Amino acid sequence: MMMSFKTPLLVFTSFLLLLVFYFSPSNKQPFTINTGYFSSNNTSPLFLYQRPQSFSSDSTSLASSSTTNGDNESDLAITSATSSEHTHHREKLTSSEKIEDDLARARNAIQKASRTRNYTSDRAEDFIPRGPVYRNPYAFHQSYIEMERTFKIWTYKEGNLPMVHDGPHSYLYSIEGHFIDAMEDNTNPFAASNMEEAHTFFLPYSVSNMVDVLYERNAGYGPYIRVVADYVRVISEKYHYWNRSGGGDHFMVSCHDWAPLVTSSAPNKLYKNVTRVVCNANSSESFDPKVDVSLPEISLITRTLLIPTQSRKLGPDRPILGFFAGGAHGDIRKILIKQWKDKDSELQVNEYLPKGTDYGALMAKTKFCLCPSGSEVASPRVVEAIHANCVPVLISDHYVLPFSDILDWSQFSIQVPVNKIPEMKTILLAVPDEKYRKLQKGVEQVRRHFTLNRPAKRFDVTHMILHSIWLRRLNFNLPA
User: Fold this and answer.
1) Which of 401, 403, 428, 480 is the most exposed place for a label (fewest CB within 10 A)?
2) How many CB atoms lie within 10 A of CB 188?
3) How far is CA 206 from CA 132, 163, 251, in A?
C-alpha cells in the first residue's frame, strides 16, 4: 500500500515541477532579430530577447508579420498549413511573394528553436554553438541553418574593374576584396541563379579601389560620392528591384574608413535603407546598427590568408600582462601612449617596435591585448588578439562590435572606458584567475568566427558576415 501511495505522488510532483519550469520566465527567451539596442555609453549593443521592432515606419518586422495567441507566443499563420497545402499556396504566389514566404518560414523556425531550446536540421551538424559566448545559441544555430537552406543573393554584373568587382586582398582593408571575390566565385552556394529568386542584392563596388583610382589632393569626397550614386542610377534604370524596395533589400561592403561618409553623403538619402557592411562602425556618426553591419577589420600578410598572430605556438606561459604597439593615430591612442609608453615592464605600451621585433610572438605571450581605436573606431588588433588567444581589451567610443547581435563580447573581452586608461594596470590585475580562464576559453570558442577561408567555410568570418546581412533581411519586408 505504501508503494502505491508514493508512486502517484511522485508522478504528480514531477509533473508539477515540469509545468513550473516550462512556464518559468527563465525558460522564455524569444529570439530578437532587431539588433539596434545600445548601452548608455553606446560602446556595445545589447541583444534583448524580446519581440522584434520595425526598422522604420514603412517596413514590417517579424513582430508585425506574426499573430499572437493567448500564451503570448507568436506563430506565423503559414505554419498551420500542411505540406501539400503550402505547396499549392506557393504556386499561386508571385516571385516577390515567394521570397517573403521563404523569410516568414525561416522566422517561424527561428522562434520555435528559441522557445523549445532546440533546432531542426536535415543534416548531421558538424558544429553546434554552445556556451555563454552566444546570446541565444539555439536561435543562432537555427537561423544559420535557415540561412543555408534559403538565402540567395544576386550580385550585380554592372560596372568595370578596378572600382567594381575587385578590392584589396592584403593589409588593412583586405576583407573588402576577399568578400567581393567570395560573392562572385562560381562555387558560392548563396549565389542566386536568377534575379527573381534573390532575397537580397549585392552592390559589388570597392570604396578602397575608388580612393586608389580617383584620389586627388584637396578634391574632397565628391568623386567617390558620384560613383556610388551613379551605380545606383544605372541599376535602378535597368532593373526594378531597387525601386520596389527603396534599396532596402540591397547591401554594400567596404572596410575603407570613408565608406560610411561616402554613402551617407549620396544625394537624396539614396543609401538610407541600404545595409552598409563597414569596418568603420561608429554609432555616433552615420552607422545605424538596426540596418548596417559591423565588418571585422582584418589585416592580412601579402599573398596569404594569414594575419600576423596566426600559426603561432600558443602555450599557457604568458609573462606579459598587457601589450600594445602602434602609431599614435587618433585621440584614444594618444592618451594611451602618453600615459603608458615605456613606463611599465608588465603593461608594455609601445608606439613603434624596434626593427626585427616579432609583433605576433609578443601578442602570443600576452594575457591582455590592448585594442584602442585609432583614427576611426575599428582596429585589426581585435582579430589579431583573438588569433593569439589573447583576451582583447577594447578601448573605444561608439564602436559597434562585429557580430554583437550573436556574440556576447563580455564573455571573451574586457571593455575599458577611455577615462579609465590611467587605471589600466589596476583593472587588468584585478581580473581573477578564474574569470581570466573563462575569458580565454571564450576567445578560443569564437576564433572560428574571425577566420578567413577561401573558399569560405561554415561559421567562418565570411559566413558570419552573411549571417549578419541575413538577420537584417529577415527584418525587412518588401511592400505588398
Assistant:
1) 480
2) 17
3) 36, 6, 12
